[in-house]
Every structure is written in structure tokens, then in C-alpha cells.
């Protein structure tokens, strides 16, 4: 089974998000970028699927901050090929633009399945995977928590909510949005990532020009006003604990 | 473009999802014609009682349960034909799937994680959560699609007996590459966290499986149960049955203590209605503090043992 995993670099949410002067985007210049955690889950599931059914895993990343690290780590984990799409992506991309680029690249490739993170923190205009599937007119299953070989195709476990899972059989090419792999993403030693870097097996090709792929016009970004901000308790751990016991007791939740 | 606002009515096992009343209520509040879209197999009866002006019903065996390919084909055909002023879906698994599929197949813009929606003339302006809820974005949506976060809009009051119009299913439904295999119910052998009065809930900040014990000790002192956020159950530190949030359980306990949970929108959706919420997180800007009643930025590894010790003493004395 030939599996493609598109991987995206996304803003590290631990960081303080500063806005640009015109207030329509985050100031990307000084932000830290990390691999989208859901794409890491998709990679893990792809590796598990390859181990079960044979075939290959190809990771594709746009030339975003620190993408080399992500792609080499994927190779070190067991991906067979890594492709970096070069271009100017410093200003960020909408999900529609990303999907359009991927659709064009995948259009020239032979593959059976695309496994991609179900979402990323920047999906203002929708999730890349489902947009990619729609653009390529391929079937799609979102929020997958398992993709296993099944009668020549795959069986996808789709989370519906409240703990309910639907099992769906998919024949032929498809895009699967992965929420979580069947096991936590495998650890890879930094020495193996370095070895992958030294082997330099990163294929580079120019990202296609897709023109105006759509998306949304952002008028402004702003920090949401919270209806009720928590009362923050000051003091050290002992003082806070003391106060919390008081609060819990006053509410009569427990008899303390 | 017509005056219709199409609302996809999500339903599972013969029950209409809570989102339907919220979305239909919003469609009416916007002054549009609130048109409910009911995709199903023999589900026409669910139309009765919907707070809609009209119902469009598409009936086909492949629509009995949510089959992404079938639902996408049916909804896309409807939207292409009717050119509604807006299309609203819930930001659930079903809605996330359909909103993107529909956008790519129709060229209509999409605002995901929508929490606000207004009309400016004929054109919609949406507000959406982005960057894990840390920021909101105001965007021009035009006659597009919005996938709406649960609880963003008040539900429509009362029901109705809207007229039902049958729409023929598209031919694509007869040649699908997907097939529904099974619906798997959650494991019922574990505790049902929706029925618990007190939950000690742990997030990524707990650091590792070995530290769950700290939360368990606090839970023991309070006669409570340990639950967790998505990353914790994904990592296997807690069973899936303990997951709070959009894809897990929605809980409304008397006391919810969030330990090392940042408060992604998907998590808040599952616990914001708890009676008393206490949040412990070292990041003072974590969104969990927007829904918590009390908060502390103390390190949970210091605070939890202190709290456990005091509660044990207090409960023992009382």
C-alpha cells in the first residue's frame, strides 16, 4: 500500500501570539514552529499500516520553518521517502491554498491512501485533508482513530462522539484525516535523526503555482473576551491548597 | 442566491443532535428562511418537531448512518441546486467532514470553528476560533458555509410541524467506494464519568502516566473519579472512557478540577457547564481560566499533594 503523509509546521501554541500591525494575522517572524501534532499521529498510523500491509510511506512538507527537522525525523522513524516543496510560505497559507498545492503534487504521484492530521490549530477555513479530498474528488473519512487493512482496502475507525465509533470500509484511493494513531507516535533518538540528515535523502521540488485557491479574508484577529475570568488564587502551593479546601467546603461539594 | 439558510440536521440512532435547535435558532435569528436538511433512511419522521420553516428530506439506504461519501454527495447536490444564502453545520465529526467537502466541491468559502455569525446586507460575517481558541478571527463569509461550535448560539425555543419536501437522492449514492461496517458503542464496563459528582481531570501538563497517581490520590481524598483530556487518553495514560470533550464525554459535575489542561475549545465544550471549576495550569493565559471559577498557576506537582493532604485531614476530622 502506497501511503502519502502531508506534514505541516504550525505555530507552537505555548508561545505568546503577537499580532501583526494590521491585526489580521499573527506575527510569524518571531514565533516558534513545530510539527502539527495530528500530522505526527497520521505518520504513526501510516507506519503501522505499512508494517501490517507492506508498501511505502512518503512524507511531503512545504518549506516552512523547521520542516527539514520534521521530514528527517519522519525518515528516521521509518518513512521511505521525504519530499520538500520549496516556495515562499513565510506569510502562512490558508487550508484551501495548502490543499490546492497538495492536490496538484499528488495528481502526479501514484498512491493508494493519504493519511493526514485531522486538523491543525490554523484551520480557520477548514481542515486541509477534507479540502484536499474534495479538490481531488476522492472519498474522505475524518477523525480516524485507526486505519487497518481490510479486504484489499482499509477499515477506518471513525470517532463520532460520546465514545461511539463507526467502522467504515473504504475501497480504492482515499484521504483519511487522522485524529489519533492506534499507538502513541514512536520515539526516535536524535542520533538517528542526525543520521537521516547526513544521508540527505530529502527530495526537493518547487511547489506548483495554484493561483488564488480561496480561503477567507480575515478582517481582524483578537483575543476573545471571556465572559467570566477565573479568580486567580495567589500565594504558594500551601496557601493555594488551603484556600481551595475552603472553597470546596463552602460549596458543600464534600464534607470537609 | 435565495433567502434560504440550510441547516444540516445531524441525527444518530433515531435521535436529533442538540446542535439542530441551535443552528435552526440562529438561522431564524438571522432573518432567513430556516430550512432543515434531513439526510437519512426512513428518517423523515424526525422532521416533526424541528424548529424549521421547511424541511428538505433526502432518503436513501446509504444515508442510514453517517457515511461520509454518501452524505457529501447528497449535501453537495442540494447546495449546488439551491444556492442558499448560508449553509450551517455543527462543528462535530459529521460537520467538520461535510463542511470541508462541500467547500472544496462548490467553491464556497468556509468558516470553521464558528462562534459568531451576522449578516451585513446579504453577506455573512463570521467569527471563528483559531490557534486553539487563543484568538478569534472575524472573516467575510459571503454566502458560504459555517461549521458552528456547540453552544455558540441559543437553541430555538419550541418546535413546529414544518412542511417536508422530498428531494431525490443523487445517482452517486448508488456507486460508493465506502461501506458502513459497524457502530461500536463505548465500553460500558468502566465508570461512567457523566454520572460522577466530582472529576479530577488531567491534561498534557501531568507529564506522564506515572504522574496520574497524583490525581488519583486527590480523587481518593474527595471520593472522586479521574478523567482526562484528549492528549492523555490518546497517549494511553487513561482509558478512552475517561475522556472529557467533544469526541469524548460531556460532563456536568458539581466540581471539576482541571490539572494541567490548557483548555482547547474541544475540551471546554465537554466541561464548561460544570457547577464549580477549579483550574491549575502554569500558563496564566491558558483558555481554561476563561471558564474556570478559580484558578492557580502553581505547579500541579506541588499543589496536588498539598491539596490531597489537607483534604484527607479535613475529611478525616469531619
Question: Can you characterise this structure?
Answer:
The complex is a heterodimer of chains A (256) and B (318). Chain A has 256 residues and is α/β, with parallel strands linked by helices. Helix content of chain A is 29%, strand content 29%. Chain A contains 6 helices and 13 strands. In chain A, strand 7 and strand 8 form a beta hairpin. In chain A, helix 2 crosses helix 5 and helix 3 crosses helix 4. Chain B is α/β, with parallel strands linked by helices and 318 residues long. Strand 13 of chain A pairs parallel with strand 17 of chain B, so a sheet runs across the interface.
Low-confidence stretches of chain B: none
Q: What spatial form of chain A do the alpha-carbon principal axes imply?
A: globular
Number of strands of chain B: 17
Helical content of chain A stands at: 25-40%
Structural class by secondary-structure content of chain A: alpha/beta
Strand content of chain B: 25-35%
| Main sheet record of chain B | 9 strands, mixed
Strand order of the largest sheet of chain A: 9-8-7-10-6-1-4-5-11
Strand arrangement, major sheet of chain B: 9-8-7-10-6-1-4-5-11
- Gyration radius of chain A (Cα, Å) is 21 Å
Key structural traits:
heterodimer, A: 256 residues, alpha/beta, nine-stranded mixed β-sheet, 29% helix, 29% strand, globular, B: 318 residues, five-stranded parallel β-sheet, 8 helices
List the helices and strands and how they pair.
The complex is a heterodimer of chains A (256) and B (318).
Chain A: E1 2-7, E2 9-11, E3 33-35, H1 37-53, E4 56-62, H2 67-77, E5 81-86, H3 95-107, E6 113-117, H4 128-136, E7 140-150, E8 153-161, E9 164-170, E10 174-178, H5 190-199, E11 202-206, E12 217-222, E13 231-232, H6 237-250
Parallel strand pairs in A: 1-4, 1-6, 4-5, 5-11, 6-10, 7-10
Antiparallel strand pairs in A: 2-3, 7-8, 8-9
Chain B: E1 4-8, E2 11-12, E3 15-16, H1 19-29, E4 33-40, E5 54-59, H2 68-82, E6 86-90, H3 93-106, E7 110-120, E8 123-130, E9 135-142, E10 145-148, E11 163-167, E12 178-184, E13 198-202, H4 212-222, E14 225-228, H5 230-234, E15 255-259, H6 265-271, E16 276-280, H7 288-291, E17 294-296, H8 300-317
Parallel strand pairs in B: 1-4, 1-6, 4-5, 5-11, 6-10, 7-10, 13-14, 13-15, 15-16, 16-17
Antiparallel strand pairs in B: 2-3, 7-8, 8-9
Helix pairs in contact in B: 2-3, 4-8
